[in-house]
């Protein structure tokens, strides 16, 4: 018989080569890259715009009954719930057991939410004008037969989602500060000096203590847009990943971070937290980036 035919037939009987347990440099870099982890989340559909995106860029909604009126409300239950994992207290290496609770958690609801929408502040602010939010519910009726009727859409949903995202990002930052003190350090220099001395790092810019910050409850889209040309951080060219914490989290949470740093590191006047690109800080990076995507789209 033809040797080529025999080889083509027999190749399906050969066992696949065992994957190497030793990861390559690229694999190790992708594991701690927030952009790669966001793009690796499962692709799902936005019921309002009918586009398919990685679930990291979507916001899940599910039904919650009002405790007094018992009316069904559509709420972002995945970020509404308080995180249950405790802040780590060990200072060990990168073992799988220690890192299990630090895995980035893109918002999702097990086993299946009522619907999903693009995680965009502008979209959630306008969907109530012509009841476009009803598409979130109607899009999954074929898969969810227990969806109740008369669902209520909460006013100010865009502000609610923003505050919940901020709360979750603050919680992740607290985990790093309290549990992984060897994964970050503080700096009091100017932002250009900080970036020049920390290439490839993750910089959480806290701003100057004396600079007044906008109020958290009254933030408007034009005030927090990270793509605003007036933003001082925009013109800085650096290989570091920079998050403007006063814009992303608001002045109230910046004060909370400074108070926490003062109690642990005895330093409340630092202008920036510099994070190592490790698995321990990955969740905080992803939630901060999600806020940045949310307020800029």
Concise summary:
It contains 13 helices and ten strands. The chain has helices at residues 3-10, 25-31, 34-39, 77-80, 96-99, 121-126, 134-138, 157-179, 191-197, 221-224, 245-249, 251-265, 282-296, and strands at 43-45, 52-54, 58-65, 72-75, 115-118, 152-153, 184-187, 202-205, 241-244, 272-275. It has a four-stranded mixed sheet with strand order 5-3-4-6. It has a four-stranded mixed sheet with strand order 7-10-8-9, with helices on both faces.
Considering the chains and any ligands shown, give keywords for the structure:
13 helices, 297 residues, alpha+beta, 4-stranded mixed β-sheet
Main sheet overview: 4 strands, mixed
Mean pLDDT: 77
Question: Count the strands?
Answer: 10
Gyration radius over CA: 23 Å
Name the strands of the widest sheet in spatial order: 5-3-4-6
> What is the oligomeric state here?
single chain
Q: What are the SSEs and their pairings?
A:
Layout: H1 3-10, H2 25-31, H3 34-39, E1 43-45, E2 52-54, E3 58-65, E4 72-75, H4 77-80, H5 96-99, E5 115-118, H6 121-126, H7 134-138, E6 152-153, H8 157-179, E7 184-187, H9 191-197, E8 202-205, H10 221-224, E9 241-244, H11 245-249, H12 251-265, E10 272-275, H13 282-296
Parallel strand pairs: 4-6, 8-9
Antiparallel strand pairs: 1-2, 3-4, 3-5, 7-10, 8-10
Helix pairs in contact: 8-12, 8-13
């Amino acid at each position: 018989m033809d040797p080529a035919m025999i080889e083509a037939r027999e190749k399906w009987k050969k066992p696949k080569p065992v994957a190497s347990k030793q990861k390559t440099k690229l694999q190790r870099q992708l594991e701690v890259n927030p952009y790669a982890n966001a793009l690796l989340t499962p692709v799902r559909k936005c019921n309002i715009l009918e586009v398919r995106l990685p679930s990291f860029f979507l916001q899940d909604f599910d039904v919650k009954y009002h405790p007094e009126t018992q009316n069904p409300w559509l709420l972002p239950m995945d970020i509404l719930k308080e995180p249950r994992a405790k802040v780590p207290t060990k200072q060990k290496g990168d073992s799988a057991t220690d890192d299990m609770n630090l895995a980035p958690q893109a918002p999702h609801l097990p086993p299946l939410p009522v619907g999903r929408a693009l995680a965009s502040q502008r979209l959630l602010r306008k969907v109530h004008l012509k009841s476009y939010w009803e598409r979130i519910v109607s899009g999954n009726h074929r898969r969810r037969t227990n969806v109740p009727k008369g669902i209520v859409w909460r006013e100010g949903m865009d502000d609610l989602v923003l505050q919940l995202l901020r709360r979750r990002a603050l919680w992740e930052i607290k985990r790093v500060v309290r549990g992984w003190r060897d994964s970050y350090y503080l700096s009091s220099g100017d932002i250009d000096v900080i970036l020049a001395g920390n290439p490839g790092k993750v910089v959480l810019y806290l701003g100057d203590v004396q600079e007044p910050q906008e109020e958290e409850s009254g933030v408007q889209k034009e005030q927090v847009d990270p793509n605003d040309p007036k933003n001082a951080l925009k013109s800085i060219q650096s290989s570091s990943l920079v998050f403007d914490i006063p814009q992303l989290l608001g002045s109230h949470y910046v004060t909370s971070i400074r108070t926490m740093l003062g109690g642990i590191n005895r330093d409340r006047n630092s202008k920036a937290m510099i994070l190592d690109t490790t698995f321990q800080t990955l969740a905080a990076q992803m939630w901060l980036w999600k806020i940045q995507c949310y307020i800029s789209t």
